[in-house]
Amino acid sequence: MKRIAVVGASAAGLTAAETLRRRGWDGHLTVIGAESRPPYDRPPLSKQILTGAWEPERATLRSLSDLARLRADLRLGQRATALDIPGRGVRLANGTSVGFDALVIATGVAPRRLPGSDLAGVHLLRTLDDAIALRAALRGGPRVVVVGAGFLGTEVAAAARAMSLEVTVIEPRPVPMQRAFGDRIGALVAELHRDHGTRLRCGVTLRRLRRAGGRVTGVELGDGTTLPADVVVLALGATPATGWLEGSGLRLGDGVECDANCRAAPGIYAAGDVASWPNAHFGTRMRLEHRMNATEQAMAVAGNLLGDAAPFAPVPYFWTDQYDTRIQAYGIFPPDAEMRIVHGDPSEGRFAAAYGHRGRVVGVLGWNAPRQVRTLRRLVVDRAPWTAFAATRALSPAASRHGRRAQGTRPRPRRAGQPLGRTPPQNRGLNNPANRRGHIASGRETDRAAR
Ligand SMILES: Cc1cc2nc3c(=O)[nH]c(=O)nc-3n(C[C@H](O)[C@H](O)[C@H](O)COP(=O)(O)OP(=O)(O)OC[C@H]3O[C@@H](n4cnc5c(N)ncnc54)[C@H](O)[C@@H]3O)c2cc1C
């Protein structure tokens, strides 16, 4: 194997290239990336970069000298347009081709768009340039509407609130982050946002964007109401960037469909957000849009290219930061999983929960509980029996401050500095009790938590 090509020069592509070199592979390495910027990290884009806490350069993953040490033919600003498997070549938009003996596909995902996405004032957030443009738009006190309350939408809302902006989030599901963690954790996320003065409009759809003179002026909702807006952020999820692979003969379902070793075809592997593979630890096919997975899967792919022949069967990890709350999760969160609070108390703004499915612990979640969730991770690794938690109390309305309010009882007093319940007096009026319905419905999650 003399030539390896990597398509996608971000977290997964860069890690695959670095791992090959670290493990002593000395052949001709080509890394092709559609963006002209050197590889950078995406998680800070919706957090530190947006609020201005970091300058954009700080998201850069490697210095130019680190990249030079890779001894790679780094083709930044060049998009792959087609894959010729029998001819062992990747065609680029500039008309040239890159030959390979083995290939790593690491092209990630592309954000979903809507008619009107190109209007002035409408923003997507996937790239550093997107983040820089959105950050500039947030200066000057605009009214912000975020469409979609998954990871990305809720993080953008939190960042915009941190800048004291007026923010409304539109979400068709009953609670935020429902796909990731289900209704019950979603209700706590809703409470967190309302406590910080974000308006939530759950259970409503976006009918269309309102415009005047080529600029967005607001959003019209399915219930007939219109919200004025100067900035609209579309956080509608993303689709695998596989357009360039159409007609190649690879199986393209929800991403590049690989085997348990992340192999899509002989000598062709996929890693990161674009890859779908059966994870033997959970006995289910998955595609993850999580930063840690991009690194781990790319390392596994590089190892398999060098002959490891090892199935990739990780316990997924991901996190999200919103206001002063960090939610961390290990494992998977199937829609029909049971959930138990196993440490702390939601009303204290710090707890850990375990998720059980088919008699096993399959996921653990920490809400401002990093130490506990790291310890609990072992249960997911060991596929511990769910019966261990049978006697543990479930998260019920009475276990959350939200639920206590609904029941008309008083919340437990808080310690100073606790993250929940610090509603600035001027924002209390923004809470909309009508949106709280459905918060204790049965948990529904998927094992893929799209951002
Ligand atoms: C705003 C934001 C915040 C996030 N926050 C978190 C977080 O808090 N926690 C977490 O776990 N995860 C987070 N994520 C997800 C995480 O960043 C991704 O899982 C990770 O970046 C995936 O890496 P990747 O290399 O697979 O894909 P990407 O980072 O998407 O990289 C793919 C690269 O391939 C390039 N490409 C695409 N098509 C082509 C082509 N045809 N030819 C050449 N190049 C191409 C793209 O331009 C891109 O540079 C966040 C993502 C975003 C966007």
UniProtKB/TrEMBL annotation:
Keywords: FAD, Flavoprotein, Oxidoreductase. Residues 395-451 are annotated as: Disordered. Residues 3-298 form the FAD/NAD(P)-binding domain. Residues 424-434 have a biased composition (Polar residues). Residues 401-415 have a biased composition (Basic residues). Its cofactor is FAD. InterPro entries: FAD-oxidoreductase/Apoptosis, FAD/NAD-bd_sf, FAD/NAD-binding_dom, FAD/NAD-linked_Rdtase_dimer_sf, Reductase_C. Gene3D superfamilies: 3.30.390.30, FAD/NAD(P)-binding domain (3.50.50.60). Pfam families: Pyr_redox_2, Reductase_C. Residues 442-451 have a biased composition (Basic and acidic residues). Residues 317-388 form the Reductase C-terminal domain. This is FAD-dependent oxidoreductase. It comes from Streptomyces hyaluromycini.
